[in-house]
Amino acid sequence: MVSLHRFHRLHRRPQSVRRGGFTLIELLVVMAIVALLLTIAAPRYFGSLNKSKDVALAENLKVMRVTLDRFYADKGRYPDTLTELVDQKYLRQVPVDPVTGSDTSWVLLPPKDSAQGGIADVKSGATGQSHDGRGYETF
Fold first, then answer.
1. Dist. CA 132–CA 136, nearest whole Å
2. pTM
3. How many CB atoms neighbour CB 72 within 10 A?
4. How many C-beta atoms lie closer than 10 Å to residue 102's C-beta?
5. Which is nearest to 119 in space by CA: 64, 59, 79, 71?
6. In sequence order, what DSSP letters do the residues of 74-124 get, joined into one string?
7. What is the distance between the alpha carbons of residues 93 and 80, in angstroms, rounded to a whole number?
8. What is the pLDDT of residues 88-134, one digit of tens each?
9. CA–CA separation, 95 vs 21, rounded Å?
10. Domain ranges in the chain?
11. pLDDT in tens, 125-135
């Protein structure tokens, strides 16, 4: 027969063995660290998102202005609409204004000589200011 002392020693769980999982304190510390990192990263993310919209707007305007100049050099007149640039294969599609999210919000400007008609320049139809303080209409 096994003695009672020996039975307890064989069947009891060692003190150093720990069950898997995390304590509440450990979870709270991890959540606090994640929250701290988010408070640092979120403003930078949204700032860079706005800056990228401004850069995309400037590039889209540059492409359309160069395309308008090429159309004028080839045809001797300015296009009547932006879709005419697409129809004549000068553009694949009318670029989207990244600030407004639309390809129909462009402000179309006629040439200085109104007898020529058509579209000589484009500007953004967005209101407000860019990240560097300039108004979108000045791009």
1. 10
2. 0.69
3. 17
4. 13
5. 79
6. HHSS--SSHHHHHHTTS-SSPPPBTTTTBSS-PEEE--SSTTT-S--EEE-
7. 16
8. 999 999 999 999 999 999 999 999 876 677 999 999 999 888 888 88
9. 53
10. 24-138
11. 998 888 888 88
Do 100 and 124 form a contact (C-beta atoms < 8 A)?
Answer: yes
Neighbours of 120 (CB within 10 A): 18
Instruction: Compute φ and ψ for 122, nearest 5 degrees.
Output: -130, 150
Contact predicate 68/79, CB 8 Å: yes
- Mapped onto helix, strand or coil, the DSSP state of residue 129 is strand
**b/e per residue, 82-94, with b = 16+ CB within 10 A?**
bebbeeeebbeeb
Pairwise CA distance, residues 37 & 39, whole Å? 6
**Residue pair 119/68 in contact by the 8 Å Cβ criterion:** yes
Asked if 129 contacts 135 with a C-beta cutoff of 8 angstroms, the reply is yes
Residues 6+ apart with CB under 8 A from 58: 139
Beta bridge partner(s), residue 97:
102
